[in-house]
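Subject: for your reference before the review

Hello V.,

The reviewers asked for a structural picture of the protein, and I figured it would be easier to keep everything in one thread rather than splitting it across files. Below is the amino acid sequence we used in the manuscript, unchanged from the supplementary table.
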Amino acid sequence: MRYWLFKSEPDCYSISDLAAAPDQTTGWDGVRNYQARNFMRDDMKKGDLGFFYHSGKNPAIAGVVEVVHESRPDPTATDPDNRHFDPAATEDNPRWYMVDVRLVRRFDPPLSRARLRAVPELAGMELLKQGSRLSVQPVEAEAFKTILALAEPSAPEAEKGESA
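And here is what came back from the structure prediction:
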C-alpha cells in the first residue's frame, strides 16, 4: 500500500463536498500537472490511502480518503465546456488521468499546516517543503502514521505539535 496527499481549494471542492457526494466518492479530475498525473496514472492502486488537503487561505489536512478506482482518462480534458478542457487531449491520446477516491474519515479539527510544521518527524514531508505545489503527491508511510496519530482526539497537545 502507498500513501498520498490530494490537494484541493475548499472553494473549488472541499471535504464537505466529498462527504455530500453519492457514496462519498468522487473522481479526482482536473489535475493538469504531469508529475501529479504520473502518480495517479502509474503508481496509485485501489486501496491506497491519502490525505484530503485543503489548500488556500487556511491550509490543513481535513481527512483521509481511499483510492477506490484506479486511473482512467479524465473526461474533463476532452469536454470543451469544462474549465479543465485541454484541446491537445483526445480519446486516442487522453493526456490526463484521474482516480476515484472515497471519504474514509474527517479530522475534527483539521490539522493545520502550521501544526504539521511543528512536528520534527514531518520535516522532510513534500507538503512542507518551500515551493511545493503538487496537487497530488506521495506521503511516506511513517509521515502518514504520524499524522494519523496527531488527528486522534485523545492525543496530548504536545504530541499534536502544539507549542506551549
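For the response letter, the relevant points are probably these. The beta strands are 3-8, 25-27, 49-54, 60-73, 97-112, 136-139. The longest strand covers residues 97-112.

Happy to draft the paragraph if you're swamped.

O.
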